[in-house]
Amino acid sequence: MSGIGAARIALSAAAEPWEVRIGRDLADRLDTKPPSRWSRPGAAAEDLADLVGPGEVVLAPSATRPSGGDVVWTPEQALGAGARGVALWVDDLPYPRIVGAIPYPELIAVEHAMAGKHACLVLTGVRTTLVFRYRSWAWPAVADLVTHVRSRAHRPGAAEPAHAGPPALDWDRLPASPLVALGQPRHARYVGAEPELPRRWLWQQSRPAAFVVLTRQELVVVRHVQGRRPLTHGVQLLAVARNRIAGLGGRGDRLRIAAPAGRYEAELGAELAQQARSRFGPMLRADGRRTARKVSKAAPQA
Fold first, then answer.
1. How is the beta sheet containing 188-193 ordered, strand by strand?
2. Per residue in 239-255, is it b (16+ CB within 10 Å) or e — as a string?
3. How many angstroms separate the CA atoms of 56 and 122, rounded?
4. 131 with 10: CB under 8 angstroms?
5. What percentage of the chain's residues is helix, strand, coil (to nearest 5)?
6. How far apart are CA 214 and CA 208, in angstroms?
7. Distance CA 118, CA 198 (A)
């Protein structure tokens, strides 16, 4: 199962082959702090450019992360988006430095989750899944790369009639519009819900603001903390290529998106999940229709 929940689970998933389990006392010494300035990793940039072409590179310095009840140390990583695709590089000599690559035509979904100082980006392709873990303070740079990757991968689909689905909304009214618009000066089909505040106890966690947008390229689910700027402080995001979606489902507060690579799932309020299923489901089913070709009658044989 995949989705925003899966990206959050990946934050504390089992150790990768290039990660090392360490004690908590050593983790405090190895814990990294925000760098004073960004630097482009030379070796990583060269390797990534050879594979996917020159482009943007985001560096994640070596750091620790929780893994179940333990702590693991992750070496330096770099995620690059070039002209041909996106690839992940890891600085660990015993294993291949290039973990994997996804050509843009094969990109199906982009998932992002944040929990405190830890964040995780999951890119799902037809044959490969890339998991990029980093510290939350690097989100603005990751947001730029995510927008770059999605704008190259998801090409506009067919134009929609003005009356189809829920009302259209201008981009500038969305709290995370640059993460959704992808440079397209068009309106979006939009359903959203305001955050739910604690009703009884102050210590209860409130539900964040959320919205679901259907564009010509993607179905995008975004959750963010009200009052905090999404492009600065981060979001919980799920974006699935529209031409890969087989249907919407789910029950209660869950929205499930069926695609060839599996099922993507996002936890929303019950009312918002139902609105997304009922309003966007028919539009996505209409995408699968095929126009029947007229077959010309064959000339009678002599």
1. 129-135, 118-125, 107-115, 236-241, 218-224, 209-214, 188-193, 168-169
2. bbbbbbbeebebeeebb
3. 17
4. yes
5. 25, 35, 40
6. 20
7. 25
Q: What is the pTM of this model?
A: 0.82
First-to-last alpha carbon distance for the chain, in angstroms, is: 60
Residues 6+ apart with CB under 8 A from 69: none
Q: What is the pLDDT along the chain (302 residues), one digit of tens a residue?
A: 455 667 778 888 888 888 888 876 666 666 656 554 455 567 788 888 899 999 889 988 888 888 877 888 888 899 999 999 999 999 887 777 888 999 999 999 999 998 888 899 999 999 999 999 998 888 999 999 999 999 888 765 545 544 455 555 555 566 667 777 776 656 667 777 665 554 555 444 555 678 888 888 888 998 877 666 777 778 889 999 988 998 898 888 889 999 887 888 888 888 888 888 888 888 888 776 544 444 344 443 43
Burial of 297 (0-12, 13-18, 19+ CB in 10 A): exposed
